Request: fold
Amino acid sequence: MSSLAEIARICGVSVGAASKALSGKAGVSEATRQRILSVAAQHHYRPNRLVHAIQSGRSMTVGLTCNDFRNDFSGRIVEGMLEALYGADYDAIVISWDLCVHEGEKVLRTFAERRVDGLLMFPPADQPSQAYLQELKTFRRPIVVVDQTFAGVEDYDFVGSRDFEGGGLATEHLIGLGHRDIANLYYGKTSTGRARLEGFREAMQRHGLPVRGNWLAEIGRYDGNLDEPYELARRLLSQKDRPTALLAFNDPVAVQVLAAAHDLGVRVPEELSVVGFADLKMASHIRPRLTTVAQNPDELGRRAAARLLSRIGEDGNGSAADGPGVVERVPVSLVVRDSTRPPARGA
Amino acid sequence: MSSLAEIARICGVSVGAASKALSGKAGVSEATRQRILSVAAQHHYRPNRLVHAIQSGRSMTVGLTCNDFRNDFSGRIVEGMLEALYGADYDAIVISWDLCVHEGEKVLRTFAERRVDGLLMFPPADQPSQAYLQELKTFRRPIVVVDQTFAGVEDYDFVGSRDFEGGGLATEHLIGLGHRDIANLYYGKTSTGRARLEGFREAMQRHGLPVRGNWLAEIGRYDGNLDEPYELARRLLSQKDRPTALLAFNDPVAVQVLAAAHDLGVRVPEELSVVGFADLKMASHIRPRLTTVAQNPDELGRRAAARLLSRIGEDGNGSAADGPGVVERVPVSLVVRDSTRPPARGA
DNA sequence: CTGAAAGCGCTTACAG
DNA sequence: CTGAAAGCGCTTACAG
Reply:
């Protein structure tokens, strides 16, 4: 990789002159500038941005920790982020959240040592260690938490979805169809899961409908296989007094509900209405097409990145010191498809 | 962010001494070292890795371009890469491939300016511009292409799956079940799609079975909605002489085939056997569970990263100059589930 | 054991 | 218009 010094030497000028010529600054004759420019192009000269980062104190990079890239939801969040960052000439250094949980402090140290200008945290359900939270405190740069909150990050900016409203929307939809016996397969370990459940509860209460204990199932372990959600759904649907409708934590869980119903011979939507959450691509691909609460992951990612960039712009290490973070909630909307319909039997 | 100079000043030593103490080098008394260490810890001193990158000529970062993070396949590749990189104390600067296609040269320039030590390219179907390929040539660092090849990158190292064998495996499975009338919904725009089709062709030929033109459908446009694959499947299955089995380009396409079959009232697997490719999570979640050719994306990612790291280790700008790149093919395997069974009517 | 100096690749005031 | 020098934050020979 040819250096400025080489270019300067070839052109017979000082590095200072070469620097000015290449950066478009005044102080060199047009002839000299052209000569330098052409030599630089010939030699594929690429200015070393690391130097600029050191000199300016801005690395023009942000750290990005993501829980998993395996689904259409987090993937689109990441894409939204990358898009917004790219537009601001920023790049992302990406580390998977798994590593954050297991070696969290080390990961944060890496980010600090690489002098990222800010941090985008897309956390999963697993609560990070105390050491991690501790290290976060000493991370003197803006942080934006995305989608999910957890204990210890209340002070940072947050961009998420209107999960509570989403839970309400889904419930209202089912109640509007005439359902009264509504089950909920929720994921209490995450802030989103709890909010959706609360939205459900509140809507049920508003309509004077009871939330029955045996129609409430909590997912304890959420992994890629989704074995537990499947089993829970199966158990729930095997009961004598089966619900006529079910709200799932999200689309993948809803797919497990469909699978369990299928395996038990319970027809959807004839005998059971199912609502998901997220509106992943799969939701409209499977049969029956899934009714779900659509989120806007791209927007989530873009807004999170935009907020971080604006914090970085504010300068003055806009970290926790500034007091409680700003909370932004992206709207959700109900998408009605084929997995819901009025109940067959009277409630 | 406190600097070494500050730490040194506080301790009343030279920066040189502080540097030695913190890096564990000899040349400072144990007492001094301890003092420096404790002051550094108190002030949350984080060495500036950008400086180290400049001094050593190694940034300990690699560029990673990915076509889309939206699915379980590419996501797991990326995770495999991040895992391997992290183990070698490397980090990834991630840019989405979309940007590579549209502003490819600019993206590569960014990587060059950030002095990444190598490049992991996970390309999609879209052929990048000439300007991009041109810029690639002047990128004097190792490059590893993953999963998919395209014209102009034959000289770089490549890590992909045994797509050809996979196509053969799937076909042999169907033939073994007694199918003779096998359709193929393929994606000719990608190297993987072409290889799978060839594997199919070769297997059919080996068994003396004809590949019928009207049972061969090429996907022209592959996007997230998969509207075209759905339509193609629908048309294919609406023919008078319907095939008894169908090979899909990949799992998402197979899901569209299931949807089309469902919508036409064609029962799977009773009237139609369907085989996918990839073994995404969804494959075992949907009903009927999908028979598919399993790939190993994590391994793909890990191997690609390992190969890149080894090239970087070799030093001497191991780029195209070294002649044709090494090609590595990760094995695939058939996973038989519920979407395939012997044909009902005689062939 | 400790400090002063050079150097990594650049930019930016400051002299000629 | 052009060059020499200082400085960004560090490391590493080289003197004391």
